[in-house]
Hints:
Blueprint: E1 3-5, H1 11-21, E2 33-35, E3 44-51, E4 57-67, H2 94-115, H3 121-131, E5 136-140, E6 144-151, E7 157-165, E8 170-174, E9 177-182
Antiparallel strand pairs: 1-2, 3-4, 5-6, 6-7, 7-8, 8-9
Protein name: THAP-type domain-containing protein
Domain THAP-type: 12-76
GO molecular function: DNA binding; zinc ion binding
Amino acid sequence: MSRRSLFRRMQLEKNQWVKSINRTDFIPSSSAVVCIKHFSSQFIIKEDRIVRDDSSELVAPRKIWKVTNDAYPSIFPNQFSHLSHEPSTGRNSPYERITALKLRYDQKFAEWSTNDTVNSFEIFQETYAKKLGDGWLNIRTDNFVLCYRLDINQCPSIVVSIKIYKDLTIEIWHDSVLLKTKS
């Protein structure tokens, strides 16, 4: 077991150590030691890593393990559970959180676009009616499906319509103007 002198620290860290160790006979000093088995694995450095000039990484296992500068003892098997615990993981930086969030959104979009693909007109005809929102009407033929919304406030008129042909070409109309044809 490795024992390390760990009390060359600021007062705040020193107080955290005293609270964590929770012994009446413990006196913190520069010569005080705590066994490494009382530290969570996230605080123990077991190997050194060096990046070479050619960008490769050299990993050398340490003969004598050491603890990180922010380490504090937290594992005490014979103590009450609120005194012996695994420390929580640190927070990610805002940049890391945003990057992870974008990655999740990209994965969800890729999954959605893969699962939401219509491969044939027949499959579309079977499933489209379930996905239409309130207020949409539709006409179904062998050659196309027409989905439209009516403005019934004054003289009834078609506000918007989407026409999907058998070859999956789409026409979008708004107020009797063709906006887009997509194939």
